[in-house]
Every structure is written in C-alpha cells, then in structure tokens.
Design brief:
239 residues; Rossmann fold
Length: 239
C-alpha cells in the first residue's frame, strides 16, 4: 500500500487533465518572489546550489533560477516532476529528480548550500514522517546553510497530540484524499479534486520539531492571508 502522501500524483493528474497548466506555486507570485529575492541576497546564494524539496511543478525553481541559483528540485509525484522539467528547460543549471524524501536521501551529506520547502512540510501528517523528512533535509545541507520553510499551515490552536497514522488524522479531523470539491486555480480555472489534508502546527511545535531535526530557528513570520493558504507562517532556519 502506498503512503498517503503519494495521493499527490492523482491530484496533479486530475489538474492537468482539466487543462490547468499550473496549480502550485506561481513564479509570478509577488510575495514569493520578494521573499526569495531577499533570502537569496541575505545569504549570498547567487551561483550556489539550492535544493527545493516538494518542488511540485517548479514555480520556485523558476524564481531561483532567474535569481542566479543552481536549482535542484525534488518531488514524489512523477507527473509534477515531468511538469517541472518542462518548465525549467530554459535553465541549463536546473535539475529535477523524483524522490520520496521520507524514505530516501536527496544527496550525500553536506551537499547543498541552501534549501527551501514551499508549502510542503505541512502536507506530512504523521510525527515519524515529518521527523524523517526534516532530519534528511538537514543532513544534506552544508554546515551553517540556511533553509526556508515558506507558507506552512499555522494555527496557534492547532492539534498538539501525537499522530501515528493517516487513519488517526482522519479520525481527528475528518479530512481525506477522496472527497472531491470544486477548486479554482489562480487564473480562475476550476476542477473537482479533493482538498488534501494539511497538518497545521503552532509556533512552539514548529520550533520544537525544527530544533529536534538539527536546525536553529532564526525567524518565525506569520504570513498575510492569501489565495494559496489562509493561515500560514514562514520559518527561516539554519543548520
């Protein structure tokens, strides 16, 4: 049986079959562009290798490539990886690879100069999956390297108990990967797909799991509401 998060492959397939060319992060999102531009500048990442975990269709990769970074994208969904390859084709320094970050390392230890996760971590529901992903992400970064977790689901009243399985999460929240809803993309196109579960965390729990994985948290920023996600926060961390 495939892990729950492999449901993203079906989600991407449905979106593309509906004729929607881009569902995830847009390379023209002004908030995202401004945040990445400042992050790249602050950390002197021009010409450096930046990993993008849960990269989806490569929107973040386009931004980072335009900024002069050597982008390395990773995602578990083959359809998203294929879309990212097409989108990043104009950038010869950009590479995308299919990878299950819960079970596989993205590279040898201390490979990347920096990393980003844009709305990816919150899609992992169980404690063990989140811990595995974060520890693998930290391990492949060079000492002192920055990582940005951008627009992760955030609630101060988020559930704080342990979560050991998707079945338990479904029992707690009622959320699943099967019930379709009419959803709209940024350009107004619509498709019937499930609203996939996302595990919001409070500030203290985000910081605790980052620290446990080997990161130090430098900034925790509550984000303005957006079409992408209503309540979110971005975490600027460093190995």
């Amino acid at each position: 049986m495939k892990p729950y998060y492999h449901a993203y492959e079906d989600r991407y397939r449905r979106v593309f079959e509906a004729g929607i060319p881009l569902w995830g992060n847009s390379p023209d999102d002004p908030v995202l562009v401004d945040a990445l531009t400042a992050w790249v500048t602050e950390n002197n990442l021009v010409g450096k290798t930046v990993a993008d975990f849960a990269c989806g269709e490569g929107g973040v990769g386009v931004i980072l490539s335009r900024l002069g970074c050597r982008w390395r994208g990773f995602d578990v969904a083959p359809t998203a990886v294929a879309a990212a390859r097409r989108r990043l084709a104009p950038y010869p320094d950009a590479v995308v690879t299919r990878l299950d970050m819960i079970r596989e390392d993205a590279a040898e230890p201390e490979t990347f100069d920096a990393a980003i996760d844009c709305m990816g971590l919150h899609m992992l529901l169980t404690d063990c999956d989140r811990a595995s992903y974060l520890s693998r992400a930290c391990r492949v970064l060079k000492p002192g390297a920055p990582m940005l977790f951008f627009r992760e689901a955030y609630r101060e009243n988020a559930y704080r108990g342990a979560v050991s399985s998707f079945a338990q999460w479904k029992e707690i929240t009622g959320e699943d990967y099967d019930t379709p809803q009419l959803r709209s993309s940024g350009d107004g196109a619509s498709v019937m797909i499930p609203l996939v579960p996302a595990r919001a965390r409070c500030r203290e729990d985000y910081i605790a799991e980052m620290t446990a994985a080997g990161f130090s948290v430098e900034r925790f920023v509550e984000m303005d509401r957006s079409e992408a996600i209503v309540f979110s926060a971005s975490l600027y961390v460093r190995k």
